[in-house]
Amino acid sequence: MNQWEVVIGIETHAQLATVSKIFSGAATAFGAEPNTQACAVDLALPGVLPVLNRKAVDCAIRFGLAIGAKVAEKSVFARKNYFYPDLPKGYQISQFELPVVQGGAITVQVGQGEKAYEKTVRLTRAHLEEDAGKSLHEDFHGKTGIDLNRAGTPLLEIVTEPDMRSSDEAVAYAKALHALVRWIGICDGNMQEGSFRCDANVSVRRPGQPFGTRREIKNLNSFRFLKEAIDYEVQWQINELEEGRAIVQATVLFDPDTGETRMMRSKEDAHDYRYFPDPDLLPLLIDAEWITRTRATMPELPAAKQVRFEADYGLSAYDSRALTASLDMADFYEAVVAIAGKSAAKPCANWVMVDLAARLNRENLEIGESPVGAVQLGGLVLRIADNTVSNNIAKKIFEALWNGEGTTADEIIDKQGLKQITDSGAIEALIDEVLSANAAMVAEFRSGKEKAFNALVGQAMKATKGKANPQQVNELLKKKLG
Amino acid sequence: MINASLKQLAQALAGKQISSVELTQLYLDRIARLNPALNAFITVDADKSLGQARAADARIARGDTGPLTGIPVAQKDIFCARDWRTSCGSKMLDNFVAPYDATVIERLNAAGAVLLGKTNMDEFAMGSSNESSWYGPVKNPWDTTRVPGGSSGGSAAAVAARLAPVATGTDTGGSIRQPAAMCNLTGLKPTYGVVSRYGMIAFASSLDQGGPMARSAEDCAVLVNAMAAFDPRDSTSLERPTEDYGRDLDKPLAGLRIGLPREFFGEGCEPSVMAAVEAAIAEYRKLGAETVDISLPNTHLSVPAYYVIAPAEASSNLSRFDGVRYGYRAPEYVDLNDLYAKTRAQGFGAEVKRRILIGTYVLSHGYYDAYYLQAQRIRRMIADDFATAFGQCDVIMGPTSPCTAFKLGEKADDPVQMYLADIYTIAVNLAGLPGMSIPCGFAYGLPVGLQLIGNYFNEARLLNIAHRFQQATDWHQRAPAIE
Question: In chain A, which residue's Cα lies nearest the Cα of B369?
Answer without folding.
Answer: A276
